[in-house]
Each structure stands twice: as C-alpha cells, then as structure tokens.
Amino acid sequence: MAASPMSRFEIFIGTWNTTGEVLATEASPAGSLVATDTYRWLPGKHFIVHEVDARFDGKPARSMEVMGFDAATTAYFSRSYDDQGMTEAFVLALDGRRWTIQGKTVRFEGAFNARKDRLTGLWEIKGGRGRWQPWIRIELSRA
C-alpha cells in the first residue's frame, strides 16, 4: 500500500506551545499572542485536524482547521473556521523544512528547525489597496 500524500505532514502531529508578537497594522494595534496548537489525524490519516486555543492580549480566540490533499489538483489545502464565524480556504506547501500557507486575506511563511521541534515564521495580512503587511511573528515549540 502506497503512503498517503499526507504522510509528510506527520511533522505537525502533537501539541505545540505558540508565542507571537502581533505587529501594528492598518486595522489593529500591536500586541502579543499565546496559544496552544494541537494537530491530530482523523482516522485513515487522510486529513489532519488543527485546533487552536489562543489569547491575543489576554482575549480568547479559538479556531479549527482541516488539512488535506486534493488528488484532482495535486495540491495540499486547508479550511479554517473560527469562533467569530469567519472561514478561509488556504493552499499549503511543505518543502523540506519550509512551510507556507496562502489565503486570500492572510498568508504565512516559515521554517522548522533541524530537529523539527520548532517552527518560526511570519504571518502577513492583506491591507488597504491589496498590499500585504507583516502581521504576526510567531514561534511554535513542540510541547
């Protein structure tokens, strides 16, 4: 039996402690982020559920994401849902230790360290006139 295209995403499975520096943007002031990110396989290991329990400057924010592989387009994808009723579709790419997430309004670029127990990177948000702005410098450390 061939390995699932999702097997490369095993690197995420588990619990991660997340910290971040929220940068001032056109829409919001600077602040801080503390979160717990949990990744788990759905049965069959074709999809990963990613749950986030975060605090932006002490204010709770929760979200859930489903990650998978679309055989028709041969692309990795995810769909996120948050406690404010927002949802967004993303295209994912894991190239070696480099991890990217591309959405219509937010995107991420980062990398795992050599031991693959730390992920650091930068989230950007689309601001006025469609310009990307640095938004959150983030670090996830395996718990």
Automatic annotation (TrEMBL):
The name this protein carries in UniProt is: DUF1579 family protein
- InterPro entries per the UniProt record, alphabetical: DUF1579
